[in-house]
Amino acid sequence: MVKEIVPPLRLTPEKSTALLSFILSAHISAAGVVLLLPLEFWLQLIVLFGIAVSLIQGISTHVIYSRGSAIRSAEWDSEGEWRLRTVSGNELTAQLKSSSNVQTWFVILNFSISPFQRHSLILLPDAVDPDLLRRLRVRLKLIGGTDATV
Fold it and tell me: Residue 57 and residue 141: Cα distance in Å, rounded?
């Protein structure tokens, strides 16, 4: 049986206004709930600080790609290997995890680099070429490429 050669997919996401809107609304909603809870003021401040840190981390990693560990590009080669390039310039070989999520309007790719190092790449239609995103979804559904099924 002849193995079909699959062309590599190279993903280089751009800034996503949809993801930015989602992250902002989720964190603002969480902050609003904390303010409505009957907690001591100092406890509210601690929780709000955690929400603010999460907001900054989420935006800098998944929207504007300013953190050094943020994935700047990902390539799924013809042998089924994933190669990630971070903002800081590191090239990493990764294993796509079964916890990745493939939907029609978004794709979340969870990667394992080592037992204690993992990265995620969130792809929405406004961040990646729609045809490339469609080909990725089809390839993930048909071929797989994770340590288990996606």
Answer: 30
DSSP state of 1: -
d(CA 15, CA 64): 6
Rounded distance between C-alpha atoms, residue 132 and residue 10, angstroms: 9
Q: Model-level pTM? A: 0.86
Give, for 84, the enclosing helix (H) or strand (E). strand 82-86
Does residue 110 contact residue 97 with C-beta atoms inside 8 Å?
yes
For the ranges 8-22, 79-93, 134-148, which has the lowest average pLDDT? 134-148
Q: Strands 82-86 and 101-102, how do they pair? A: unpaired
What is the tens place of the pLDDT at every residue in 13-51?
999 999 999 999 999 999 999 999 999 999 999 999 999
Tokens, residue 58:
């989420």
- Domain spans, the chain: 17-62, 70-142
Please choose, from the candidates 79, 85, 129, 78, the residue with its C-alpha nearest in 3D space to the C-alpha of residue 107: 129
